[in-house]
Specification:
about 375 residues; alpha/beta; Rossmann fold; seven-stranded mixed beta sheet; 14 helices
Length: about 375
């Protein structure tokens, strides 16, 4: 198979869909890999590194799309990239379609086969290709939140861990999944007063085993959300409904009643965000203020630590890329129900139930496409 890897073009996105070591694994199996020149510049790899791994360097992304059968990316394709997709392409990347009607329409119109990292499941019910970036984003959310709390950045001027004689900042994390767990680890490490809210008792029990009494665990409902969000200096939004738009758990009225100079970090922004006042921002212009509350809603947070993120992502995606390249998408998905869950759009049909429901498409069972 011919695998193509174009450079990412989203604002301040430096990650690469494949590292040289991943390329080497494919070329060793007699697959052809074509990559856009300077693909790895942002993560410390030169064209020579990719050539040494067996890749062919092409001058433009357009050349990559024209030659490749499978396109491997990191972020969802932007409009100019979507125009290059045809019925002969297999696209393998993050898509986050539920809140993105324009992208979904373009992918449907392209007739390409589009597999989303974020909806592939594992036998244990986890999301193995979303997990590494959720780990990074969870940890980064605390770094970003701590910076936003600085007075010069619009925050209240509270130090996350306090100092002897001065209380620590109150960090409230909504969602006890991968993002929430890693955010809690970072916040605890910095000495913050940490509370996690989740409505899943099984998750709360697991968190209790992990953290013991070092953090507060609260069952999430309207009353508890209101109480803890209003008391917080920093709120991390880390809720996830696989494939679907994130629920708006924190309302505009709650934001209005929060502490002046408080900070919210919406890690769920790729799926539309879980704060009613959220709108996607970029690393170039990451924050804005609503009712004296600083909002950090960068849609590609892990891109800021691109080398770590690209390596972590490649560790997770490579086995799946190899299967697609070795066996083709139809055979691969037909024999793996969990991989099949990643099929979001295929030959002009929407094959993910949550995306279809959110955007008003007829749902087509992905099994019928393989």
């Amino acid at each position: 198979m011919i695998i193509g890897v174009p450079k990412e073009i989203k604002n301040h996105e430096y990650r690469a869909g494949m590292t040289p070591s991943s390329v080497h694994e494919l070329t060793q199996r007699n697959h052809t890999v074509v990559v856009e020149t300077n693909l790895g510049t942002g993560i410390g790899y030169s064209d020579e590194d990719y050539i040494a791994a067996g890749a062919t360097i092409l001058p433009t992304a357009e050349d990559v799309f024209k030659q490749a059968e499978m396109i491997v990316k990191v972020k969802e394709p932007l409009a100019v990239e979507r125009k290059r997709l045809t019925k002969d392409h297999l696209l393998f990347t993050y898509l986050h379609l539920a809140p993105d009607a324009e992208q979904t329409k373009d992918l449907v119109d392209s007739n390409a086969v589009c597999i989303a990292y974020e909806t592939i499941t594992s036998p244990s019910g986890q999301l193995p290709l979303l997990t590494p970036m959720s780990e990074v984003a969870g940890r980064m959310s605390i770094q970003a939140g701590a910076t936003c709390l600085q007075k010069s950045n619009g925050g209240s001027g509270v130090l996350l861990g306090g100092v002897p004689g001065v209380e620590s900042a109150k960090v409230v994390i909504i969602g006890g999944g991968v993002v929430g767990t890693h955010a809690a680890q970072m916040a605890l490490g910095l000495g913050a007063d940490v509370t996690i809210l989740d409505n899943n008792l099984h998750s709360l029990r697991n968190l209790n085993q992990m953290f013991g009494t070092t953090i507060k665990l609260v069952h999430s409902n309207k009353a508890s959300l209101d109480e803890h969000v209003l008391a917080a200096d920093l709120v991390i939004g880390g809720v996830l409904i696989p494939g679907a738009a994130a629920p708006k758990l924190v309302t505009a009225d709650m934001i209005k009643r929060m502490k002046k100079g408080a900070v919210v970090v919406d890690v769920a922004i790729d799926q539309g965000g879980c704060f009613e006042t959220s709108k996607a921002t970029t690393h170039q212009d990451p924050t804005y203020i609503v009712d004296d509350v600083v909002h950090y809603c960068v849609a590609n947070m892990p891109g800021a630590v691109a080398r770590t993120s690209a390596q972590a992502l490649n560790n997770a995606t490579l086995p799946y890329i190899l299967k697609l390249a070795d066996k083709g998408w139809k055979e691969t998905l037909a024999n793996d129900a969990h991989f099949l869950n990643g099929l979001n759009v295929c030959a002009g049909k929407v094959t993910n139930q949550a995306v279809a429901d959110n955007l008003g498409y007829d749902y087509v069972d992905p099994a019928s496409m393989v």
